[in-house]
Amino acid sequence: MAFTLATWNINSVRLRAGLVERLMRDEMPDVLCLQECKSPVDKLPLDGFAALGYTHVVARGQKGYNGVAILSKLPIRDVGDKDFAALGHARHVAAQLDNGVTVHNFYVPAGGDKPDRAVNVKFGQKLDYLSEMRDWFRAERPEKAILVGDLNIAPREDDVWDHKKLLKIVSHTPIEVDHLGAAQEAGGWVDITRQDIPSGNLYSWWSYRSPDWDLADKGRRLDHVWATPDIAAAGHSSRILRPVRGWEQPSDHAPVLASFDL
């Protein structure tokens, strides 16, 4: 079975439902994973999505914050969620396709502004969240699985616009990169985007604070598509849809896509 999967931090799905529908019409991914939906599940704007063929939904939500959803043209079944670091946040949900592939949709905490858990509780929560992801993957090593989402870390030097300048900026600090790497190693996860695009600067997020994000191009690759080793070779055609960042009233993230032949 061949399918295309997209992941996108939408930064309010109700505010940007029209953009989601535009992406569905333009790109037609079989599975679309959204993060930061900022909506209870019963308030998600699902009718418009269903009209475009996305009739299967597995989601977790909360009012005004967080929230993750898996929208699919293909049948999926809900296979649960994890509350990492006991935050009580809607930051993870998993669904399984009929071919047995499990899709994990993650929204890792951003971590606040200061990379020091002694003065910034949110940074400590982020590290704890990643540590519990690592421990789960060690205890229950995933198979035939895809992990996507806003992981809020740009791990490689060419995943940020300036490696040296961002070493003390949350999302690219060595301790965060180490924690993400440990979680990735524990699950044996393969970075599909970098498997397809092994070198060169690559970004999926550009700050709203930049008066001209496109010209400045001070981006970071915070959004990821990973797969377990047993299916990683089936992944291909990875893309980051940079132009979407320039749509009217956009999210500060761009969608990331990959296809799989399984």
Largest sheet: 6 strands, mixed
Could you tell me the radius of gyration in angstroms? 17 Å
Based on helices, strands and strand pairing, what is the structural class?
A: alpha+beta
Mean pLDDT: 98
Q: Please give the alpha-carbon distance between the first and last residues.
A: 5 Å
Query: CATH homologous superfamily name?
Result: Endonuclease/exonuclease/phosphatase
Low-confidence stretches: none
Task: Characterize the overall form.
Answer: globular
The strand line-up of the biggest sheet is 3-4-2-1-14-13
Task: Looking at this protein, list some descriptive labels.
single chain; globular; Deoxyribonuclease I, Chain A; six-stranded mixed sheet; 14 strands; 262 residues; 7 helices; alpha+beta
Describe the structure.
The structure is a single chain. Helix content is 24%, strand content 26%. The protein has helices at 17-27, 46-51, 121-139, 174-187, 192-196, 213-216, 229-232, and strands at 2-9, 31-35, 56-60, 68-72, 76-78, 92-97, 102-107, 145-150, 190-191, 205-206, 219-220, 223-227, 235-240, 256-261. It has a six-stranded mixed β-sheet. Strand 3 (56-60) and strand 4 form a beta hairpin.
